[in-house]
Amino acid sequence: xxxxxxxxxxxxxxxxxxxxxxxxxxxxxxxxxxxxxxxxxxxxxxxxxxxxxxxxxxxxxxxxxxxxxxxxxxxxxxxxxxxxxxxxxxxxxxxxxxxxxxxxxxxxxxxxxxxxxxxxxxxxxxxxxxxxxxxxxxxxxxxxxxxxxxxxxxxxxxxxxxxxxxxxxxxxxxxxxxxxxxxxxxxxxxxxxxxxxxxxxxxxxxxxxxxxxxxxxxxxxx
Length: 222
Ligand code: C5J
Prior knowledge:
With 222 residues, this protein is α/β, with parallel strands linked by helices. The chain is built from nine helices and ten strands.
């Protein structure tokens, strides 16, 4: 067994039981005219991590390890969108509204797609999720169980919302979770920093955090 240098202590990699989970690297969170921008956020913060997410994905592919992608999205009839989610806040465009990239966060719309640079390849699992967490109302738990996966490396956006929610869901289900620091981002730098700190606090209470270079170096030599 090899260990990935990590905080708060080394991550004990099980190469035959690890997968990369890339959370919601969708145009709606990263491009002007999408959901993230409609909430008043600076989406350029998200596009800046694309190169690091890309090399993490490519590293897992090269090592022959599974890559799982998630997409936050809803059915066109909005039957999986609670009013409490649709009506929250004061966005210029709500989920399901028609925007410049199609209907916001609706399955099959151009803006809902994963960024082309990070697009899944044949054979990779894509989880369409109506919630912030990727286990809620999806088949993710069954897929991981069938494949014997017990460790999850996380990348994607946003750090304190869908990434952290999914990590907490996974942690409660018994997975060992590692967050790739340069491959995750928030619209709020202080929220990213706080999330990293709280995940690894108290002896890795939610999981570990590590640098992309250390993750890649270890998976390629384990
Ligand atoms: C948000 C996400 N922030 N993917 N979604 O609404 O984090």
